[in-house]
5-methyltetrahydropteroyltriglutamate--homocysteine S-methyltransferase
Amino acid sequence: MTITKIKAPFRADQVGSFLRPERLKEARLQKQNGEITAEQLRSIEDEEIIRLVKKQKEVGLRAVTDGELRRAWWHFDFLGGLVGVEFYETDSGLQFHGVETRAHGVKVTGKIDFDQHPFLEDYKFLHSIAGDHVAKFTIPSPNMLVARAQVDQKVYPNQESLIDDLIRAYQKAIKAFYDEGCRYLQLDDTSWAALFSEESREKLEKNGQDPEKLAALYARVINESIMNKPEDMVITMHICRGNFKSTYTSSGGYDYASEIIFGGLNVDGLFLEFDDERSGGFESLRHVNRSNLQIVLGLITSKFGDLENPENVKARIEEANKYISLDQICLSPQCGFSSTEEGNLLTEEQQWDKVRHVIEIANDVWK
């Protein structure tokens, strides 16, 4: 028997990104070296996205994404496309455990706005090939600009004015995606992870930031950004602890910020990492205070190819069920397979085995 849930997020769902095909990696290098045009690169991207969407349908996913195949980064590409935001070369990359990303970043150089963003065309293409499946699109949470961007103090002498413009820009973005047909939008957010461990909170305090006030700010930015969303649009949020070449940036359970995450955010669903001990236990789910909040348990790791014991995964779902209804639970990988174009350390075959694993376990649980 197949899963019958008809509204996103689905019992077997996904976070978004997929490994970049070798053909696409080669084409990017050719474009960078001036060997092919931007139009030729986009044509190759189109072909690879068509192939990817077909594969997602074949394995049994209800929602399909473009795998973020057109992006170099899960967040900078979108943020850099906002009015008033630019890419720049940083002195060093983002630090992950044992590895460092490329030295790129974004900076705010003008008033923030949303207008003619290239991601709208990206969504329109995905929508055109989704067919009977739901076209799911992912963008970074507005909190990522707060957490990651260098801000010109002449443009925004105080954070409050920046926040107000950022919220308005995201409200416009959500309406623009909706107008193009988007009914399933996901906000990806690593900013919350800085609140999870005592060590990271101490680091914030040393930098003059109050973790409690920061959590309240993050919640306000999310809630006000999505406050005008249409009733028939699903907006979820993925909370991540970092995902680059199968490594991570932070650890810690959800406990410190659990009341505000599970009881104070107005999203329709939360994609949560629960694939290893770094994510803590399910006790924080006791703060879920509404029956229409879907909790997508990321119990299947996207970082490595070995398949989890399905009985262990089912047991963990049962454990989460002690705190929330089974009707509110869904299953997914803990993150995407390729948050940046470099990708995690597993093969495409292993990637699809992981997706099938999610679907098969979900079909067993929600018969």
About this structure: The longest strand covers residues 104-113. The CA atoms of residues 73 and 310 lie 32 Å apart. The chain has one domain: 22-365.
